[in-house]
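Dear Dr. V.,

Thank you for agreeing to look over these. As mentioned in my earlier message, I'm a first-year student in the group and I'm still getting used to reading structure tokens, so any feedback on how I've presented them would be very welcome. I ran two proteins. I've put each sequence directly above its structure. The first is here:
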Amino acid sequence: MDYIDEDLLQKGIDQGEKLNAEYVELRYQDKYLANFQLRDGELVSTTGSREGICTRVLIDGSWGLAASNDISKESILRLVENAAKMAKGAASQKDSKIKLADVEISEDKLVSPRKISLLDLSVEEKLKKLLDASKHVKDYELVKSFIINYNEVVDKRTVFTNEGTKVQWEDMKPTLMTYCVAIEEGKMASGFTSWSHTCGAEFFDLHPLDEVMISSAQKATNLVKASLPPSGLSNLLLDHQLVGVFAHEAVGHTAEADMVQAGSFTKGKLNQKVCDERINLVDSPTLKGSNWEGSGWLPYDDEGVKGKKTYIIKNGVMNSYLTNRAFAYELNLEPTGSARAYTFKDEPIPRMRNTYIEAGDLSLEELYEVIGNGFFLRSLQNGQADSSSEFMFGAVECFAIKNGELTEELYQNPVLTGNAFEVLNNILGIGKDFDTNLGQGFCGKEQPAKVDAGGPFLAVKAMLAGGN
């Protein structure tokens, strides 16, 4: 995996300027993908790479975009010409003109944090880890079905613009998921564990696959014996993962500039109080967990803009949106480095990176006391939210808290539901222990994107949907 010849990109830039483009951008990508899945003993693996280039030009306030997996000089010049034709054609049909916010010009080359390259570990070694981990299923007689899924991305990107930006970076992200289904006397329950980071092959030391498999099998075995939790307004303690998905899904999406302009909950609320003043909600190009870098690591976005730590909410006040350059100009905000494209063929759109709520000052034991009588929800199972910030998240485990102490009383399939900003106005306490883990870390807004999220343990008053 080598970077593209910079002279080829410069020739494309020169061609765009000859065609009177106001702005010329060339974006190169070489992306390696591998996926290994073991489902009930059946192993399936796929590996492959995709290389290509995209050009965008802005002429008379309109975009033109063209992409190809042919990275020859002739192809690049042809792409620029085609993009220019599209931009000119679009401009003749439009009254409104796109303008771009000014940005700092960057020249940089860097690689993502890692100790050992993922590519230094052979495919055979990775498959053996899956097969060895699967042997633990036999120790759990109630587990009738299982999945182990491991995938990795090694992504090289280059962005050149006619303004002088020249940035290149290599990124690698491993992802692991184990899933077990237990059945007993007609009852069924699932146990689920997942991790994704920006790192190298040390990932397997951080999360030994045997331990991750055992965790899911044990969860399924315990949960199949558990009943459904009671429903109603409750005092709830959320773990790092649930706080993360809450920050990402229920709040973060409402602050992406394209969603804002389409009428999300946060539209028109800049500089207004939207939640408890103790809440600081951040989206950042980097995020350090307890032992790893967040899987949303993104030093530069796909417009070549340096990533900026952005307070979406600061002291309970709506502080900023996540922007690309066009939306930043339109909203009179600074670009946040949030323009992201999944492949070289895609249009960069405003996306989150690593999204989290900042830590407070309460210990876990103090949070139990704050809850008094309620429930501790752990690990994300599924969830959804919409642009109004209404959400519904299913957790894997739910433990009762009684008289300020955590008990072993376990319930299955708890569902947290409500309006995110109403919940953030009903904060009971914010923990001081911070960590990140959005599980598999894939966001599916229009295009897939690797993201991460997290936060402290968070005590809230919210609606719990169960079955009793």
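The second protein is here, in the same arrangement:
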Amino acid sequence: MDMQLAPAPLVTDPRRRLILFFFLMTAMFMATLDNQIVSTALPTIVGEFGHLERFGWIGSAYLLSLSAVMPLYGKLGDLFGRKYVMMTAIMIFTVGSAVCGLAVSMNTLIAARVLQGLGGGGIMVSIFAVNADLFEPRERARYQSYSSLVLMASGAIGPVLGGTMSDLFGWRSIFLVNVPIGVLVLTGLAFMLPYRKPHRRPRIDYAGALLLALTTTSIVLATDSSELFGALVSPQSIAIVAFGVVCAVTWVFVERRAPEPIVPLELFRNSTFSLLLLISIMGGAIAIGMVNYLALFLQTTTGLSPSAAGLLFILLTGGLVCGSLSAGRIISKTGRYKPFAIASLSCSAIAFALMSQIHAGTPIVFIGAIMMLHGIGIGLAQQVPVIGVQNAAPARDVGAATGSVTLSRMGGASIAISIYGAIVASGLGKVGVSIPGVADIEQLTPKMMASLPEASRQAVADIYAAAFSPLFMTACAIALIGLTAAIMLKPVQLPRAGEVKMPQPTTAEAAE
């Protein structure tokens, strides 16, 4: 098998490998933090620029462009070598961050977020692919769990950091802080990461990349249509869906004929790959897609301030750290990942079923315990899809397979954000009662809510709790779909180091 001819690790010196890993994790922290850091600062940004109806777009624009370019970066890394592809992504992200920090209107901020996402997508894919170059499969399970930890730590720290920094230094600081970090990481990678030239003559499937990006964008725009066009089913949304279907069908035809397809369709012949993609989509929807809404839920139903609501996310991270580290260690020892996928999605399904029953007076301790259970759930299977597909794909397609998983995770998140937004908006739209001191419930910032009289605040909390109940039931259903896919996985065992490091390929094989 192609996969058995695994090349030697890119860096053999353990100390240099750890320093490189630190730089990679810093880049990843920066890229994922920017997905979440905005959540608690959003009310402040809306206060300065107005346009509350575009609230969702500050998050969606970033996730959308991030998702659209992910498969392209995976493929570019396979064809040109990962070093310069990754450095380019970090550079684009750093420039995007600077423009976000200097934005003069809501539209410039959204455009700058798109630019940031174009870099962020490359950072996410390249990091997992470089990890595959640095470590062999079982060791990779352990290091991937650290990567996942960083991924989720940034998700949990983001809301606290965003709230605190925007209180102390203004919201622009949350973007500008990326500039020095970006420069530091670029310098570190330039000197420390060796360049490994792939043995293939690059042929980029531009048509495939463009069609995949258009398909992803159509899906997200269609789920956002209630916000954009005032109704979930409107002539514009039907047109977008039809356009997305045409792009998807054309993409399949293009990929079949492309000499170097963005996502090789043979990968889908392996049921493990398809099931892991489905688990990844559902995981993205309930893990990343939920963060902004959990922050909004906590600030509206419990009356907590942005920074106090952010602190509850520490429980989520705590659960996540426990789940991720223990799963990484056990997978590393046993080589089995299926049980973790099942346990993970079961925990999340239970957590959301409980969340849907929460009303405005529920004790904070109970909410914290549910968030911790959800965190453990996410942590247990955080690295499963990436490790699983990297093991299932031939060595030459590791980058493309990794890109597909990361794309499906982010795609799941951005679609879920739009669906959750529509559910909450329709819940709030049905409110017939007028509350004293509240002109428009949707324009309430946490500070305004804190200054309301007690009876009004309680009424607002009840309305939000009722609007969030169907959202949590939807998340529970999404977790159950993922759980079904996890149960259907084959019980694969990852190879040990000795089994993978086969003799080096001959020159004839290397030339292929």
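From my reading of the second output: Residues 36 and 155 are 5 Å apart (CA to CA). Residues 2-205+259-511 form a domain with the Growth Hormone; Chain: A; fold (CATH 1.20.1250.20). Does that match how you would interpret it?

Kind regards,
E.
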